[in-house]
Design goal:
With 189 residues, this protein is mainly α. The protein has one domain. It contains eight helices and no strands. It is flat. The chain starts with a helix and ends with a helix.
Length: 189
């Protein structure tokens, strides 16, 4: 695995920890049905992202990338769904399995820049889980008395934009340098 793959996987691990902390903080304000929906949304997006990444990385070895991604999806579904009950665990595990299978197949079929663009889109959808939890719990929490409540989403959105512009773009440039042939290879052919 190269820098790009490790960067994306590390980002997804950090995102999983943030969403877990966020879901435990707001657990009392989230109904079981909303918990199931959040669990399914997050596990599906995360396993799709990991599936496309591993399918792209291990092209030609679909079994390995599919099984590994399904195991990651099951693990995240178990951990994240346990915040909201057994139905959320089942929903998260099944969404993780399904997303892992579909993501690995997509990563295997799509070549080159197409999979990098798809990973970027799926990574954004995974990150949007943070906003989903805030939106769901916002209606149940008393209205803020301060006028600075708008500052939190703006700061969060700014951090996500900086992450995509600086971090993801830098990681994508590393993969492009990794796969570009050196000048000596052109002389050999």
């Amino acid at each position: 695995m190269g820098y790009y793959q490790l960067f994306i996987l590390g980002s997804l691990i950090v995102l999983t920890i943030i969403v877990l902390i966020q879901s435990r903080i707001f657990k009392k304000n989230i109904s079981s049905m909303e918990g199931m929906m959040i669990s399914m949304y997050f596990c599906m997006n995360l396993s799709l992202t990991v599936g496309v990444l591993l399918g792209f990385t291990y092209q030609g070895n679909l079994i390995f990338s599919t099984v590994l991604t399904m195991l990651i999806g099951i693990l995240v579904g178990l951990i994240f769904g346990s915040n909201f009950g057994i139905l959320s665990v089942l929903d998260g595990v099944m969404a993780g399995i399904m997303g892992g299978m579909m993501g690995a197949m997509l990563g295997e079929m799509i070549k080159g820049d197409g999979s990098i663009i798809l990973i970027r889109i799926l990574l954004f959808l995974s990150i949007s889980t943070i906003f989903l939890i805030i939106i769901i719990t916002r209606s149940k929490i008393t209205k803020p008395s301060k006028k600075l409540w708008l500052l939190k989403p703006i700061v969060l959105a700014t951090l996500i934009i900086i992450y995509f512009i600086c971090g993801v773009t830098f990681a994508e440039n590393q993969i492009n340098h990794y796969y570009e042939p050196s000048p000596n290879e052109h002389e050999k052919h």
